[in-house]
Design a protein that fits this description.
With about 290 residues, the protein is an alpha+beta fold. Helix content is about 70%, strand content about 15%. The protein has a five-stranded mixed β-sheet with strand order 2-3-5-1-4. Strand 2 and strand 3 form a beta hairpin.
Length: about 290
């Protein structure tokens, strides 16, 4: 019996030892797996973060967005305005007023684009077109208004062309980029047909650039220099009443008859030819009548 007990005890101890060895091996394997998997996971996460940063860096994107928004704000704040004014009034002395406008134009570095004087039976009028720097537009009108008692008409118009200006500038930039692309394509053309096709497209793009640049120059000129249309007049005599107008109508009618006679005298060769032709026609008819008798 003692031998059997000793045998069972030895077997039980062996089973415990084997079980303990297996559990220790499983723990070692588990530890090895966890030790290996953790660094791999960290590296993968780091690589993903690095790749994401390289592919789409948030700081650069934000900075580009900020720069674009700042450029848009810069364009929008640079307003392009076309200013124009129409002024009409009665002057006490037309020559003195004319000279004061000339002196005022020199003061504000403006220039007179048009200057015409008219005269009728009752008034002498003067019409002028003055180009004034846009920054001095209001100052010029205020200085001119100091010498005017009352305006018959005072009209000021301001046209905002900022949107058109930005659109034209963007169009020019886009067309110039397209021009450079066509130039690069032209360098790699392989035959005459490709060269002709690319040159045709290139010429069309350059024509569009010239048109856009011309529009840009005109907008710059109109926004840099404002236009002031001025008309002032002086009354020389008061209008006459009904009988005065009636007598004037008789005089004008008599003058019309005299002008008609003078016009006929100027056309005497034509009148002589017509009279001669009528005389020949009448004489020929009389001859035919006499022959029938």
């Amino acid at each position: 019996m003692k031998k059997y007990y000793l045998f069972f005890i030895i077997i039980f101890i062996n089973i415990i030892i084997i079980t303990g060895c297996k559990s220790s091996k499983e723990k070692e394997v588990t530890l090895e797996i966890t030790d290996v998997s953790i660094p791999e996971t960290v590296e993968e996460v780091v690589e993903e973060v690095v790749d994401a940063t390289v592919e789409a860096p948030p700081n650069s994107k934000q900075s580009s967005d900020v720069s674009e928004s700042s450029q848009e704000n810069t364009i929008s704040t640079e307003r392009k305005l076309i200013k124009e004014a129409d002024l009409v009034w009665e002057a006490n002395n037309i020559n003195k007023t004319h000279q004061s406008i000339i002196q005022l134009s020199k003061k504000f570095d403006a220039y007179i684009a048009d200057d015409n004087q008219y005269k009728d039976d009752y008034t002498i009028s003067n019409k002028m077109t003055v180009k004034v720097p846009a920054k001095d537009f209001d100052a010029f009108i205020n200085s001119l208004s100091n010498d005017v008692n009352k305006f018959d008409r005072k009209s000021i118009k301001v046209l905002d062309v900022t949107e058109e200006y930005v659109d034209v500038a963007t169009r020019i930039k886009t067309k110039k980029e397209l021009e450079q692309r066509y130039i690069e394509i032209l360098k790699h053309a392989r035959n005459v047909e490709e060269i002709l096709n690319v040159e045709a497209q290139l010429n069309q793009v350059r024509l569009e650039i010239e048109i856009a640049e011309g529009r840009m120059k005109m907008l710059n000129h109109q926004t840099t220099l404002s236009t002031i249309n001025i008309e002032f007049y002086e009354t020389t005599s008061a209008p006459v009443g009904f009988f005065g107008k009636l007598g004037k109508s008789f005089v004008e009618g008599w003058n019309g008859i005299l002008y008609f006679i003078l016009g006929m005298v100027r056309l005497w060769p034509l009148c002589l030819f017509i009279f001669a032709l009528i005389y020949l026609i009448i004489k020929r008819r009389r001859l035919k009548i006499n022959q029938r008798k």
